[in-house]
Amino acid sequence: MGTSSNKKIKEYANEMPLELRRAIEAINDDFRLAVFFVLLKHGEMSFSQIMAELEIPRKDSSILSHHLKILEKGALIKNEFTKKEGTDSHSFYNLTDFGEDVLNGLMNTLAVPRSAGEPIEPLKKLLYQVGSTVSEKAFKEAKK
Length: 144
Known about the structure:
Blueprint: H1 7-13, H2 18-27, H3 30-42, E1 45-46, H4 47-53, H5 61-73, E2 77-81, E3 91-95, H6 97-108, H7 122-143
Helix pairs in contact: 2-5, 3-5, 6-7
């Protein structure tokens, strides 16, 4: 029995909003998750900068394009076309507010220890550090 023909499975799966399903599907891949975290860590980046940061060979640029489109479809990242002084790039990628909200929502489900003496698993530690950076970025932008 295939899951695609099971009406009950489809019924329950469809209870999750389509936007959230697309976001989960978009980050359910190591390549896309890496792109997502690169943008989270560095903020706005051009296509070339993402390729360089992830050490993607030029011959594999179409693979990056494919994954960026899936992240855009999941509404986790946005692509803006603009001419910026000092760069040859015109296409820039960044997280959307929804992308940051999804990450913050996931981070809020982790119980990060409050005292410095408590052990922190590596993933929780990384997410805590990245979350602090995102919070600082949001605070700085709010002050402008």
